[in-house]
Backbone:
């Protein structure tokens, strides 16, 4: 029994976990390669997708780092923007964009970048 | 001077004597390991938001140095990996048994494993991967099981486990130690049960060594083969308290001691001192690998060697740095010997003067871990909530903005204080050793070397952090 459990665990572990519903979006940074300090994040989504809200969270890849959170504002059809996103440390960042449509359905996209 | 014996505190003594006391301490850490495995394998693959990475790379390491500084090697005492003991006892019935090779009965093998582990830590960026962290935990359990099933009990802790040996090394500066209450009682002790184990059979008391299969109440002895009246160091002591339970004369004390008494007086074997020296330089490297100068060195080395292969660059940097550290240490120790007029081989000189590295190694790791622990200690709350929620045990919505334990601008001064204390402690050790040789000039030379190393470490810790997985930026 113990062996079976271990085998099941190994098999399950062989595939990395997946994230939720994917968000089809183009993400740009201004400047294109941000350095430590403030930067703008532009998120382009399909204008037909009626979104109510977009949250942007920046995490560093080391445990223990407090995330940087921001809310994007609509800036035209299908365009959302965070003006002053604070890249407060050098290193690898994971930007998680979570969008909610009017019915409350959640979409997510992850972008990785290195702040030199 | 009569020092306080913690086991004179009755509730503690009763707990320690209870045969399930270690098990009770291991269960919480086993649950933590299981949750880390679950979240590492199945949770979100983002280090600051996963229980595996936060618990292992932040809290485990942070609490470990804290426990060692305040009391002793409590993490070995509560090590959940030793829960493989039940299954391995069963497996031993079917598996062939081997003696641990004589050539490996020292710390050199574990020094090699520690170097490999540190290389893997940087090369695969274990700190940023919950998935790999979970594999590391699982791998650790598997190796502990295999070694414990094929070799005598205690082999894994003493000769294989890099984590345990890290704890042993740092606990050389702990304020407690196992010792005999009255060494005279040990002189007339017929079985030396603390190391040989005890079994109370209907025919009388025997040692587990002479009667391993005897029926009766059994009390295993010290698995790492420490003989209580001769213990003068915490090296290899897992604080399992087997000796306390095995001694029929209630003659084992867990005494408070001056934290530096061991490093100042103990006569270490050469391999043990090398482990301490290596841990200092490895701790330095671990901190250096998170600041911009490290990446600049890597870029230059890459241009010099004409390669962008991370494995090559990383091993070159590691080997150069630790090699340089070991070389300089031998040189400085030999010089100190020369000044004090002692003629002995360089390895013996390192054995004598290198003991000063123990408090320094402690300070180096404590300084680095303090930074990570204090910046993100509260993140354990949301990651635990998230992992439990995913398991179907709802414990509220995680709040990811939970802040650090101390203001950010306290962190560097705190690291400076820790390293200064380490340097001060190391200089006390050198002073005692220099006095024993009647040559303060010799001690001053080693002190100067330590001073420069600490100054370099402080410079590294003063650099802005750069938490990057790739050694070289894309071209
Ligand atoms: S500590 Fe106890 S068991 Fe060990 S030698 Fe002394 S009296 Fe005997
Ligand atoms: S049995 Fe050995 S390892 Fe355990 S506490 Fe006693 S001396 Fe330390």
Residues:
């Amino acid at each position: 029994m113990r062996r079976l459990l271990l085998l099941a665990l190994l098999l399950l572990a062989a595939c990395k976990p997946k994230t939720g519903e994917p968000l089809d979006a183009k993400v740009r940074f201004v400047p294109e390669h941000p350095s430590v300090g403030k930067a703008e994040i532009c998120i382009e989504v399909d204008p037909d997708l009626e979104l109510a809200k977009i949250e942007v969270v920046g995490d560093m890849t080391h445990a223990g780092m407090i995330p940087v959170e921001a809310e994007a504002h609509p800036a035209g059809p299908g365009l959302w923007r965070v003006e002053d996103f604070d890249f407060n440390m050098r290193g690898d960042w994971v930007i998680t964009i979570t969008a909610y449509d009017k019915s409350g359905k959640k979409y997510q996209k992850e972008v990785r970048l290195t702040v030199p | 001077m009569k020092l306080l014996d913690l086991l004179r505190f009755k509730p503690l003594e009763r707990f320690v004597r209870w045969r399930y006391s270690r098990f009770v301490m291991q269960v919480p850490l086993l649950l933590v390991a299981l949750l880390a495995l679950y979240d590492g394998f199945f949770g979100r693959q983002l280090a600051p938001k996963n229980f595996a990475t936060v618990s292992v790379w932040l809290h485990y390491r942070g609490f470990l140095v804290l426990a060692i500084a305040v009391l002793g090697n409590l993490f070995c005492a509560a090590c959940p990996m030793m829960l493989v003991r039940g299954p391995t006892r069963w497996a031993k019935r079917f598996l062939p048994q081997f003696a641990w090779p004589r050539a490996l009965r020292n710390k050199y093998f574990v020094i090699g494993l520690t170097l490999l582990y540190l290389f893997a830590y940087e090369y695969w960026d274990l700190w940023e991967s919950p998935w790999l962290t979970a594999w590391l935990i699982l791998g650790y359990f598997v190796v502990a099981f295999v070694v414990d099933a094929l070799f005598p009990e205690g082999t894994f802790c003493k000769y294989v486990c890099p984590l345990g040996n890290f704890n042993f090394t740092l606990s050389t500066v702990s304020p407690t130690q196992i010792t005999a209450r009255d060494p005279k009682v040990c002189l007339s002790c017929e079985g030396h049960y603390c190391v040989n184990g005890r079994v109370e059979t209907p025919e009388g008391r025997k040692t587990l060594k002479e009667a391993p299969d005897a029926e009766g109440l059994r009390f295993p002895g010290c698995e790492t083969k420490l003989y209580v009246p001769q213990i003068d160091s915490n090296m290899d002591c897992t604080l399992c308290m087997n000796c306390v339970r095995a001694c029929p004369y209630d003659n084992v004390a867990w005494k408070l001691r001056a934290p530096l008494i061991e490093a100042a007086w103990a006569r270490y074997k050469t391999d043990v001192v090398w482990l301490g020296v290596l841990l200092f330089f490895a701790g330095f490297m671990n901190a250096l690998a998170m600041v911009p100068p490290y990446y600049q060195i890597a870029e230059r080395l890459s241009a010099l060697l004409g390669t962008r292969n991370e494995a090559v660059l990383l091993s070159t940097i590691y080997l150069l740095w630790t090699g340089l550290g070991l070389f300089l240490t031998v040189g400085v120790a030999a010089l100190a010997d020369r000044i004090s007029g002692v003629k002995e081989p360089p390895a013996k000189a390192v054995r004598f003067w290198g003991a000063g590295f123990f408090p320094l190694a402690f300070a180096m790791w404590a300084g680095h871990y303090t930074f990570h622990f204090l910046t993100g200690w509260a993140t354990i709350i949301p990651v635990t909530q998230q992992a439990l929620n995913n398991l179907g045990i709802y414990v509220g919505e995680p709040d990811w903005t939970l802040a650090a334990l101390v203001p950010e601008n306290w962190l560097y001064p705190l690291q400076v204080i820790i390293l200064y204390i380490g340097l001060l402690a190391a200089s006390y050790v050198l002073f005692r050793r220099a006095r024993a040789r009647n040559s303060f000039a010799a001690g001053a030379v080693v002190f100067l070397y330590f001073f420069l190393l600490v100054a370099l470490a402080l410079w590294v810790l003063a650099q802005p952090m750069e938490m990057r997985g790739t050694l070289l930026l894309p071209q």
Notes: The pocket of iron/sulfur cluster (ligand 2) is lined by residues B 178, 222, 224, 226, 237-243 (CB under 6 Å). Strands of chain B lie at 176-180, 198-201, 204-207, 217-219, 252-256, 466-467. Chain B touches chain A at residues 37, 41-50, 53-54, 56-58, 87, 125, 127-128, 131, 134-135, 138, 292, 372-373, 375-377, 379, 400-404, 464-470, 473 (CB under 8 Å). The mean pLDDT of chain B is 94.
